[in-house]
Amino acid sequence: MSGSSSVAAMKKVVQQLRLEASVTRVKVSQAATELKQFCLQNAQHDPLLTGVSSSTNPFRPQKVCSFL
């Protein structure tokens, strides 16, 4: 049994390696350039850079209502 399970495991490994080898690769410099370009194009929509208005902020503190 262990021999056939070992063969099956090795077949899975070979299949995974073939899948990984078929993936098209991109140079790091090209990926970094594209990421920088994407970030600059979408900076105006990024709430971490532009902030969130208090009227549309779902995480704003709730108003406290107290009775005297």
Automatic annotation (TrEMBL):
Alphabetic keyword roster: Cell membrane, Lipoprotein, Membrane, Methylation, Prenylation, Transducer
Listed GO CC annotations: heterotrimeric G-protein complex
Record bears the keyword Oxidoreductase: no
InterPro entries from the UniProt entry: G-protein_gamma, G-protein_gamma-like_dom, GGL_sf
Location of this chain's protein in the cell: Cell membrane
GO MF annotations in UniProt: G-protein beta-subunit binding
Membrane topology annotation: Lipid-anchor
Entry superkingdom: Eukaryota
GO biological process entries: G protein-coupled receptor signaling pathway
Domain G protein gamma: 3-68
Subunit structure of this chain's protein: G proteins are composed of 3 units; alpha, beta and gamma.
UniProt similarity note: Belongs to the G protein gamma family.
Function according to Swiss-Prot or TrEMBL: Guanine nucleotide-binding proteins (G proteins) are involved as a modulator or transducer in various transmembrane signaling systems. The beta and gamma chains are required for the GTPase activity, for replacement of GDP by GTP, and for G protein-effector interaction.
Name under which the protein is recorded: Guanine nucleotide-binding protein subunit gamma
Source organism phylogeny: Eukaryota, Metazoa, Chordata, Craniata, Vertebrata
